[in-house]
UniProtKB/TrEMBL annotation:
<dbReference type="InterPro" id="IPR009057">
    <property type="entry name" value="Homeodomain-like_sf"/>
</dbReference>
<feature type="domain" description="HTH tetR-type">
    <location>
        <begin position="12"/>
        <end position="72"/>
    </location>
</feature>
<dbReference type="InterPro" id="IPR001647">
    <property type="entry name" value="HTH_TetR"/>
</dbReference>
<dbReference type="GO" id="GO:0003677">
    <property type="term" value="F:DNA binding"/>
</dbReference>
<keyword id="KW-0238">DNA-binding</keyword>
<dbReference type="Pfam" id="PF00440">
    <property type="entry name" value="TetR_N"/>
</dbReference>
<feature type="DNA-binding region" description="H-T-H motif">
    <location>
        <begin position="35"/>
        <end position="54"/>
    </location>
</feature>
<protein>
    <submittedName>
        <fullName>TetR/AcrR family transcriptional regulator</fullName>
    </submittedName>
</protein>
């Protein structure tokens, strides 16, 4: 048992070193120009340590960002009153702005966007399950809203945040509510 705990501790340390090294390299290099060799050299671990944990650098970034993004969504789902969910998501984006800027600049935004989409899908399918939509409508509405919410927040965060946070919240709430109402109305009329 002690050997297993020790091996797990070494694996966790290797993952931490690798993540730290990659994030340091991303400050000055695009993801597609960074090699595994550069990361392991900076991390002070072997290539074997990298490949025991990850297949690609993108997988390493996904493993790093996934728990943080999922935890924030879980917090919003479980602990934030319904009327404050958009505000809480806005705070998430504000807090996440430097990471999103780095991701956009250094070529790993698709990882952040995919993690966001995965969590938005869970978020909407949990919070809108009783909205009166068919499964197909809910699925496509969720994809539509996830892409739209991401695009709006991205635009706002990366282009100087010239509009107030309230304006962005109101816009998102209007889009969310009006599209949902239109679908529910269409479902009733069908």
């Amino acid at each position: 048992m002690a050997a297993t705990n020790h091996a797990q501790a070494i694996k966790k340390d290797s993952q931490t070193y690798l993540t730290t090294a990659l994030l340091q390299l991303l400050r000055t290099h695009d993801l597609d120009t960074i090699t595994v060799t550069q990361v392991v050299k900076r991390a002070g671990v072997s290539r074997m340590a990298f490949y025991r944990n990850f297949s690609t650098l993108a997988e390493l970034l996904t493993a790093y960002f996934a728990p943080a993004i999922a935890a924030r969504f879980q917090d919003v789902l479980q602990h934030v009153p319904a009327e404050q969910k958009l505000v809480a998501m806005g705070q998430f984006f504000s807090d996440f702005a430097p990471t999103l800027q780095l991701a956009a600049q250094r070529g790993f935004e698709s990882i952040i966007q995919q993690l966001f989409d995965d969590n938005m899908t869970t978020f909407y399918q949990t919070t809108m399950a009783e909205a009166g939509l068919t499964a197909v409508q809910l699925n496509y509405w969720t994809k539509f809203m996830s892409a739209g919410v991401y695009a709006i927040w991205r635009e706002w965060l990366l282009n100087g945040q010239t509009e107030s946070l309230t304006t962005i919240h109101d816009l998102l709430a209007t889009l969310q509510n009006s599209t949902m109402e239109a679908l529910v109305k269409a479902a009733k009329e069908a």
